[in-house]
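User: quick one, fold this
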Amino acid sequence: MGSFFSGIMLGLSLIVAIGAQNVWVLSQCMSGANRLVIALVCIFCDALLIIVGVFSANEIKLLMPSLIPWLTYAGVGVLLYIAFGSAMRAIRGNSGLKLQKSKAKNWQLTALAAFAICLLNPHVYLDTVVLLGSLGALQPSPALFAVGACVASLFWFGSLAAFAPKLKVLLSSPTRWRIFDSLMAIILIFMALQLWTMA
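Assistant:
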């Protein structure tokens, strides 16, 4: 079960780390724009890319073993880069979430926008296919790792859809975002060290 919990921990640390995609998702969900549709699209895209990443990386490992260490080092670099960004936001304390009221949209347009945000963002591929894929290939059970990472996505986006109104109040505070970013930086550095030791 260690692979499963590693998948959950790393999946959550990457999903929750705030980038362009998640800022959009958070702002849309908290302003009430078809929250369930956005959550389902994000969960589907994450699960698809995680599964492709983990199992394609495993095949690459069998065919080209020399490539996996380089993917692993790239993953360490990505983790440290995201951790640095989170730490800098925590130090500056100027990253409170700013929301605007969302006009009512039909769910099809919302779904298309969510697919575009999920699939046209290069960081999504770095996080899911490259980083989670390379780490998952190193696990004793890549399948359990992939399931854990998918569960993390389900938990995160499901929570956003369910608790968006309360999160809107909670996360609008720059002070709370500083705490949030600090925790993300610590988790990401820890996972980068773990990944480095497995290379």
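User: anything notable?
Assistant: Residues 2-72+104-172 form one domain.
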